[in-house]
Amino acid sequence: MHATQRKNLIMQELQQNDSVDVLSLARRLAISKVTVRKDLDELADKGLVVRTHGGAVLAEKQNLVRLISNTITEHTEDKKNICAHALRFVEQGKSIIIDSGSTTVHLAPLVAKMNLSVITNSILVIQELAAAEAVELLIVGGLLRRPSLAAIGSPARSYLNQIHVDTLFLGASGFSVEQGITCTNLIEADTKQAMIASATKVILLADSSKFGTVSLAKVCNWEDIDLLITDDGLSDEGRLTLEAQGVHVQTARS
Question: Is pLDDT at 71 greater than 90 in this prediction?
Answer without folding.
Answer: no
